Structures are given as C-alpha cells and as structure tokens.
Amino acid sequence: MQSKNFADDPQIQAHRWWILVAVCLFTFMSTLDGSIVNIALPVMSKDLHIPMNQAEWVVSIYLIVICALLLIFGKLGDTRGKIRIFKMGSVLFILGSLLCGFSAGLTFLLVARAIQAIGAAMTMATNNGIITEVFPFSERGRALGMIGSFVALGSIAGPGIGGLILAHLHWGYIFWINVPVGIIAWFIGQRILPKDVTVTHTPIDKTGGSLFAFIMVSLFAGVFMGQEIGFAQPLILGLFVVAIVASVVFVRLELRVADPILALKLFTNKRFSISILCAFLIFVANFFFNVISPFYLENARGLAANYAGYALMTFPIVQVIVAPIAGAVSDKIGPELLTFIGLVLLSISQVGYMLATLQTPLWIFMFFIGLMGLGNGIFMSPNNSIVMSSVPVQNLGIAGGINALARELGMIIGISIATTVLFSAMGHYAGHHVTAYLPAHPEIFIDGMRVAFTVSLAICLVATVITGVRLFHRPAKA
Description:
Elements: H1 10-14, H2 16-32, H3 41-48, H4 52-55, H5 57-80, H6 82-100, H7 106-134, H8 137-168, H9 173-176, H10 178-192, H11 206-229, H12 234-256, H13 270-300, H14 305-312, H15 314-333, H16 336-354, H17 362-389, H18 396-430, H19 442-477
C-alpha cells in the first residue's frame, strides 16, 4: 500500500480549496440530476411519444444504477485510487449528460442516462474520501459541510432550475447544462487534483459487488414497478423475495471474504453506524417534504409553479449558508451536540408542516421550510464528519460509498413511502382509491398531508432520540 499524507504536502494544501470547488461542482450536478428530470417528464413523454409510466424510468434508472454501483466504486477508490476513480467518473458523467439531451428515442435516452449514472456513482463514492484525505483535521468539518451544502442544493433545487430551463429551452438543456459546468470542473481537477497516495491494490470482491448490484436492481425495480401496477402483484412480490434472499446470501458471503465489498466490520463502530442510520432517516424525511410540498403550494394553495419553486428554494439556500458554518463550529466543539440540535430543529419543522392548513399564512409555511434548511445544515456536515473520521484511512472510499448509498436509499425510499402514505391516507378520507391530487377536494389532501408528515415526524424523532442517547453517553465514554 502506498502511504503518504496530503496534509503534509504544501503544494496540495495551497490548492485544497480549489480541489473542494471541483469536487463540489460534480457533487451538485450528480445530485441535481436525480431530481431535475421529474418536472420535465410530461414534456419528454410528449416529445418522445411515450406514455408517462415509461418516461418515469428516465428517473428510476438513474437512481437504481447509482445505488447498485456506489459500493463497488467506493471499494475501487480505496484499492485503485479515489482521485483516479473520481476523474474517470467526471468524464463519464459529462459524456452521459451530452448524450441524454438528444431526442433519439427512449432506449437511447435510458442508455445515456445509465452512462451518466455510472459517472455520478464514481464521483459520489469518492468525494468525501478525497476531501477527508486532502483537508487537515482542523478544517475537515467545514470542507465536508460544503459538500453537504451542495448535496442539499442539488437534491432540492432540481424542480426550480428545471422549471426555469423548460420555460425557455428544449428539455435536452436540463442535461446539457451539465456539460459546460462539468468541463470547467474537469479542467480545474486536471490542474490541481494530486495523484493518489492511499492505494491498497487488494483484489476486488467481484462476487459481492455483483450480488449487491443484483439486490439493488431487484429491490428498486420492485419499488418503482410496484408504484405503477400495485405492490400485491406476483411479479412485484417475487422481486422483493429475490432481493431478501439475495441479501441473506450477500451478508453470509461478506462475513467470510477477506476483503469484502461492504466492510461489515465498519458497522461495529457505533459512531459510524449511528451516523449512517441517522443520515438515511433524515433523507427519507427530506423526501417526504420534496414530494408533498409542491402539491401543497401549487395545487392546494394555487401558487404558480415558479413562485412555488422560489418558496422551496428557501430550504437549500438556508442550508448552503449554514452547513459550512456548522462544519467549522464542529471542528472546534465536536460534532455530536450539533447533530442533536439539527435533528431537534428538523423535528420541529415536521410539526409545522403537520399543522399546516389551507388558511395557514404562506410566510409561516416558508418559515418552517427555512427551519428545515437550518436543521439540515446544522446536522449534515457534522454527521458527515463523524462518518469519515471514524474509519481508518484505507477504508475512506468504502465509507464514502456507504454514506452516499444511505443518501440515495433515503431519497428513493422517502419518495416511495411518502407517495404511498399520502395517497393511502387520502383514499381513506375520500372513501375510494386515490392515486393523484383531487382538485375538487383540497381538504382531503390536507388530511393526507397531515398523516404523511406525522410519519415523517416519527422518523425524525427516531433519529433525534438515537443521536441524543449518543450525546448524553459521550462523557462516560471519554
């Protein structure tokens, strides 16, 4: 294994903030492309002459491919070099983005989207590891906080940015916007990203990696197809059974392999496992908000799409401002207290959404959107810092991959649970099956929204309690 410390290299330290810029740009774009496409699906469906349920696979395939490949690219980052994998991923992401913009049919678009997702997975799996290696411990929280800011911005800014592009340009530009930004980031990276110095050259667990990818594909194919045709269908139940059986085989295999694709021993570290679990839960809760709030603002309250987009941008703007500050503070006082405070604020924001009605002043609803951004900003960067500082340097890549996987799983599961709970609750109050907003009965949507945000509040409270227990036990372990 090659071993050297980037923190001791004055040339690398002189460029460390530019390295952060390059990494953050790809982090933003790869996260943005998970959410920006949703708003364009009706336009793409019409332009490509395909039904809406087929157009939705443009979103689904991106998320499935990323989840399937994050762990293997995290491991490749550890064994072949995180910066090398990141650079290759950035090229693939730019190429995939270029190809996605052409109206050459659904098959071509899905292949291009898969190429884009492979590149996104390569950059997502290695970004936190690169920053953890490059930045000294005293600045690591602030740097990881910046990555957290761009993740938040990308995950929720998609509808707003996509709406602005679609108002003036062809839908292809929601992908082509990545190309010039990506090329600029790539040139910055080529000039200032150093050569990898932490490379283990251990063999890759190909069987484990393939099995994990199979689990992700079968599980989320079941989730996305189940939303279209119903979860009680034999095909969907079969996919879930296959995923469960494959998961059992995967765990048994990983416990026997010398260098597993998923280092299960990392989860014996309580700081690591608690932080990963809380990150997953909070992304689930965030995507309850992402799914439900546009319905509330546009359908129930009658806001134009652009004004709803401006209101929703309160969340990422607050988080972008707060996250680096929270990271810097965590470098000085430690991250545990900040993660707990952030989760308390997030829980309060869910109460605000839960109590919202058709008469609630919009400025009060926006206050809770801003409070959610504040809570996320205070929570995310210290939590990332705990994750990345609690593993040995040779496992930074796989830790970053697991962290990104928790985020992507949270997004997919959050969307799935939010829509299921919302429409089930609406169906209960309406007295019949509901699969969409009911324009004549906004009060039924409000009832369903209250139930959905009650579930989201419960998820936030679980994370808050877990983190609180860790905080209050911290002195006894010191």
